[in-house]
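Q: Here's a chain of 434 amino acids. Please give me its 3D structure as tokens.
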Amino acid sequence: MTTLSSGFARARRWLREHPLAFDATLAFCTLVAMICSSFTDPGDGHGPPAFGARTPELFSVLLMTLTAAALVLRRRRPMQVLAVTAALAAVEYVLMDPPAPVVMSTVIALYTVASRTDRPTTWRVGLLTMGGLTAAAMVFGSTPWYSQENFGVFAWTGLASAAGDAVRSRRAFVDAIRERAERAERTREEEARRRVAEERLRIARDLHDVVAHHIALVNVQAGVAAHVMDKRPDQAKEALAHVRDASRSALNELRVTVGLLRQQGDPEAPTEPAPGLAVLGELVTTFRNAGLPVEVACADRDRLPAAVDLAAYRVIQEALTNVRKHAGAGAKAEVSVVRVGATAEVTVLDNGRGSAGRGPGTGPADGPPGDGDCLDSGGHGLVGMRERVTALGGALTAGPRYGGGFRVHAILPVEARTGEPERPGTAGGTGLRR
């Protein structure tokens, strides 16, 4: 049984891949059925049909052969095949008595047309074929007009139209389902790629903010230690202590950032919150230890949402890092965070020598020894700040100030679009003036 079913499946698959061979086989089977039926006499309706009671005429055999041969082209020329078979069937009803079952080919051709066209066309062609052949059988046949053979013509042609329309509807339904499934699969893949790209961008932005800030400070302090190692060892030790603290902070923040990549539910994943304005004082202290005077003014207002708080912290961190790397010796910086209505405004000003190295695509400006080793020479710092701010629905402007220096100004909506819950203790401790 298994061998038989597999052989049938292979034959079906081969015929589906070769439609012309399938149509030729169907035409041959139809011809055999028509010839066998032409030897059958239905009788007067009171007894069973008698096989061999009559013999088809040569003209009828010729018509049956022509209509069967036309079925080979039923997929390529469905309307033309229907017209030819219907015309030959009508000729059979007009000229021959009793007629041979040439109408079998017309039924198959009508089914093909109904399964490959729209419903209005099926209705029009089907009614025309049904009416024409039934009228020819009733008018020119020797049997009474109400005989079952005449109504059989009407029934079989009508059944062919209905069956073809049903097959066409089911095929369209299956194609629509398959198209929706493919579109949904493409949408899922595109959404997955988009989320992966966004997550990669977020991780790259966080790593840049952490590494660029701390490595810049380590670079500065290491340069100071190397410069004063021989003449002022105490100051060199102090600079090396700052290097140690900055490197420890960098390692801790890298551990937190990389730990976010762990699988969900990993007990070793970090649980401490992301940095925010609550630790702004510690951030400013690291810059002061690196030789950059920083003045801070933060309004003591309501706490900011977690996403806004983190974005404000990263904007200040990146802006001060750029000041330290590019503003030159003797530069000073001012930081302010204020609430204005439904927004929080973050401003970082400096009085450096200019804006060299702070715009996208520019290199580092002239500065102290070692400042040229900049992680942000490609301008990713400003790009990252702008991406953070715009992701929350805010706006960021950065450019040189009139009279010298640089200005970074970010406007952050208090209601973050990400819908993240507020984190307690993020901004409440920054209401200070230094």
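Q: Can you summarize the key feature?
A: The first strand starts at residue 40 and ends at 41.
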